[in-house]
Amino acid sequence: MAERTLQKEKKGKRMEKVKRKDQKKWLLILVLLLVAAAAIWRLVSGPETKETEEASMTYQQITAEEAKKRMEQEADALILDVRTREEFETGHIKGAVCLPNEEISGEPEELPDKGQTILVYCRSGNRSKQAAQKLADLGYQQVYEFGGILDWPYQELVE
Fold this sequence. Notes:
- The protein is an alpha/beta fold.
- It contains five helices and five strands.
- 48% of the residues lie in helices and 13% in strands.
- The longest helix has 44 residues.
- The termini are far apart.
């Protein structure tokens, strides 16, 4: 009888070892699956690079009043008219630089400083929104869009 009990104990110990081995195998499989899932997620979501950060940048939309205030308070603020050159010649905000929306790509020579405040406008507000987003996508950090010259209430500032 003692021998039988001893055999049962040995068998029980072997079963426990087998269970522990199975548990270790399943734990290892689980860890490997988690690592694989993390690697796949990283591939699918793409690497976090400077380019992806810049691509997700955006501009701020402000009112004409806020734009005028920035023009008065920030001497180095650039006023950017994104209408065509012909439209620009018919009248523009004093001190504005003309860079048509269609010509914004790469790094425009008119905009060498990506940290400079840029105040963007057009005729009605559509092209200025497009241009402001293009500039933000190119890495310009302080882009402010304030609509169109049609809504500009400060005619004394138009030349």
